[in-house]
Amino acid sequence: MTNKKVAEKMSQVAIKVTHAELEAVIMKYYEAKRALFCWGTMGIGKSWIVRDAARKIATAMEKKFTEDLAHINDPEYFLVIDVRLSQCDPSDLRGIPVWEKTKGATQWLPPSTFPRAGYGIILFDELNLESGSNAFLTGNSSARPGFSLSVYSG
Questions:
Q1: Beta-carbon count within 10 A of 56 CB
Q2: Could you read off the pLDDT of 5-42 as tens digits, one per residue?
Q3: Are 10 and 35 in contact, with CB atoms under 8 Å apart?
Q4: Where are the beta strands (DSSP E) in the chain?
Q5: d(Cα 104, Cα 42) in Å, to the nearest integer?
């Protein structure tokens, strides 16, 4: 798919794509630091395509591809973090609230499984199976600039 065709599709609200086109769209969305929501029936390969696109992005960035959280925040790696929403509580995504006395407000301490540095994609999967408390949709994202948030439904 050409860059122009991908750009045209990115400007649309909803698009229908092939597997190859989805990979190109994921790569462009990562480059643009934009979130992406993909919907499709279970088992058609959405998560697999994310991983394939991530491997290609890692290679282009001369980073080592991994899904191992032991490499979180390591700038030598391109990390794919697979978050299964059906297995998460809201605090797993938003963090734990702590009273900040000096500010007179609650501060959210983000989970240690979300990156503070480095590069990668956070894959929120099984959105259609989660219980209803989508803390990550409130706009309180713990991801840092090198990461692209990709949200997928199973």
A1: 17
A2: 666 666 667 788 888 999 999 999 999 888 888 888 88
A3: no
A4: 36-38, 64-66, 77-84, 96-100, 105-109, 119-125, 147-152
A5: 45
